[in-house]
Amino acid sequence: MSGTDWREEIGGRVKILQIIVGALLAGSTGFLAVAAVLALSGAIEADRDLAVAMNLVLILFLAGDLLARLIVPRMIVDQGRRKIAAGNWSLPGGAAETEMAALIERTGDAGRLLVLYQTKTIVAAALMEGIAFFAIIVFLITRSTVGLVVAISMILGLALHMPSRSGVVHWIEDQLHLIRQENQLG
Fold first, then answer.
1. d(Cα 132, Cα 147) in Å, to the nearest integer?
2. What digits encode the pLDDT tens for the residues 23-47?
3. Of the candidates 71, 76, 106, 74, the residue with the CA atom closest to the CA atom of residue 92
4. CA 14 to CA 18: how far, in whole Å?
5. What does 76-99 look like in DSSP terms, one character per residue?
6. How many domains does the chain have?
7. Could you read off the pLDDT of 109-122 as tens digits, one per residue?
8. Which of 9, 13, 28, 89 has the most CB atoms around it within 10 Å of its CB?
9. pLDDT digits 0-9 by tens, 124-153
10. CA distances from 54 to 78, 139, 142, 146, 155 (A)
11. Residue-range definition of the domain harbouring residue 98
12. If you compute the radius of gyration of the chain from its CA atoms, what whole number of angstroms results?
C-alpha cells in the first residue's frame, strides 16, 4: 500500500480513539461537576479530620501514578516496536480483531503501529483518569484544595491525550523510521 493510502486509512481510525479519550474525559469532568455541586451545596459534610491523611495518600498515589505514566506507555511502545521490527508482533485478542487484522493486512507495519498507539494512549489516559477520580473523592470527602487542584490538573492532563489525525500519522511515521533503524542495526 502506498504511503498516502495508509495515512488516509489510519487517519480515519483516529476518531475511535478520540471517542475513547473523550469518554474518559467526560466521565472525570462530570464526576468533578457533581462533586463540586455536592460540596458547595453542603449536601455532604466535609471531614476535616481526614484531610491530612487523605491528602498524604493522594500525593503518594499521584507520585506513583505519574511515575507509572512516564514508564508504562514507553515500555508498551518500545516492546511493541521491537516485536514489529523482528516480525513477531501479534494482534491482541478482542472483539474488533477481524477488522483490525484486515486493516493490518492493507497497511502493514503502519496498522500494527496504530494498534500500539491506541494501546499506549488508552493506558496513559486511564492512569490519568484513575488519579483524577481519587482526587475528586478526596475533595468531596475533605473539601481539600489539594484534592481539587490534583483533580483539575489530571483532567487537563487527560485532555492532552486527545489524539489528532496529523499527530497520530506523524507518530507512526517516526516509529516506522525507528523500525527501519532497528532493522539496519540488526
1. 9
2. 999 999 999 999 999 998 988 888 8
3. 76
4. 6
5. HHHHHHHHHHHT---PPPSTTHHH
6. 1
7. 999 999 999 999 99
8. 28
9. 999 999 999 999 999 999 999 999 999 999
10. 36, 9, 8, 10, 19
11. 3-185
12. 20
